Amino acid sequence: MSRKLSFYFLIFLATICIFFLALNQRYSNYLEHRLQPILSDAELRSRMKYQELFTVPTTKYDDPFWSYIRGTYAMESVALVEIADVVEQQRRIIQKEMEDYVYPNGKYDVYANKLDDLVIEKQGNPLRSVILTTWRSGSTFLGDILNSHPANFYHYEPLLHFGIIQIRDPPLSDEALENLDSMFKCDYSSLERYLSFGRNSHPWVFNHNTYLWKQCQLHKRICWDNRFVTKFCKLFPFQSMKIVRLRLQPMEKFLEQNELGVKIVLLIRDPRGVLQSRKHRDWCPSEPDCFDPTALCSDMVSDYNTAARFSKLYPNTFRVIRYEDLSVDPYSHTEKLFEFYGLHFHENVQRFLDTHTKTDIGGLSSTFRNSKAAPFHWRNDLDFEEVEEIQQECNLAMKLWGYVFALNETHQRYFDPVTNYSLRDSEA
Ligand SMILES: *[C@@H]1O[C@H](CO)[C@@H](O)[C@H](O)[C@H]1NC(C)=O
Ligand SMILES: *[C@@H]1O[C@H](CO)[C@@H](O)[C@H](O)[C@H]1NC(C)=O
Prior knowledge:
Layout: H1 2-35, H2 41-47, H3 50-55, H4 64-97, E1 127-132, H5 139-147, E2 152-156, H6 172-184, H7 192-199, H8 204-207, H9 210-218, H10 226-233, E3 238-243, H11 252-256, E4 262-268, H12 271-278, H13 288-291, H14 293-313, E5 318-322, H15 323-328, H16 330-341, H17 347-356, H18 378-381, H19 384-393, H20 395-401, H21 409-414
Parallel strand pairs: 1-3, 1-4, 2-3, 4-5
Helix pairs in contact: 2-4, 4-10, 14-20
């Protein structure tokens, strides 16, 4: 009997040993996978298929610990494979779109003559076209014109998460410039604040970026993952950026040592038009940087002085345009701006102008409108008293930028508010 008992006891012991051995094996397998450096896209692709991911690592230990580990492991791997797939797909789309592109090839100081020259993942340098302006100054219109160019990655309001403020000086401007620098370099690993701002119910951080948003609709899981956005962004030969929260002076940092090749256009609009347009925005009235004509126009004066200096120091990388001039003659101004940026005036851009500058359809922020009339609505929508108040606060800014004063109610309704201006260095 004791023999029989010890026999059973031995079997019992052996079972326990085998059990622990198996467990240990599983766990070290798991650790090995977790501690592996992240595989390159190609490796990942060849090693894994979606199918396998859901079954590896399978264990028969179905307690919460193991299913948790299995879950995170599988989700993580699926995300990495999905990122690699979408990036590869986009790479092909861009190559196709760029087949007949006319490269600058030495014109306008830009020497790119093939796609790789402009693609970060191939150690190239994309063309980086910046619009610097303030809220409601026509930047949606100009931003969409730039974005109608093929293979463009649109950094839409990169400083959205700073709130409704104007950034003028350090230390805030230093932080802002760091953000811009990371975006130009497509390094989203340090932009978690921006990404989480977008992820948490501010989709317009991304939804103006046509190519990115299209993929985001299909691949919601990876859309706000910094690893995805970084790789995705690095595929694009063209980047455009619209900035409405930072004044011109701090941007000198990019023009001074311009190894990124950033080109900046300052977009200016009649303060009466700006303030009329802002009245329709519910986020505006509580923020002085937004509703106060004094703040707007003192920024316009300091931007004027900076612009006068920049246009002498950086004639190839800095330009000014007024929204009114652009709207009245969108074709010739767009052509000139594209030359300045080094961009080809592509048929897509022409088509965009054909369809967006003639009729008036769509809502407030729509750029489907009669572009010739859009900048001048304020003449009918503002009372003469409101106009007078703005003109008092904005006297100097309006003179510098070539805007004509309305003299009375009747005059306001029909006069031409735009005249010449020239950039003179007022400190000289
Ligand atoms: C408004 O100003 C215009 C231009 O100076 C002038 O000709 C006109 O008489 C003025 N109208 C009124 C009602 O004051
Ligand atoms: C506007 O420009 C034209 C031609 O360049 C010039 O003759 C005229 O004097 C300018 N007007 C003002 C107000 O600067």
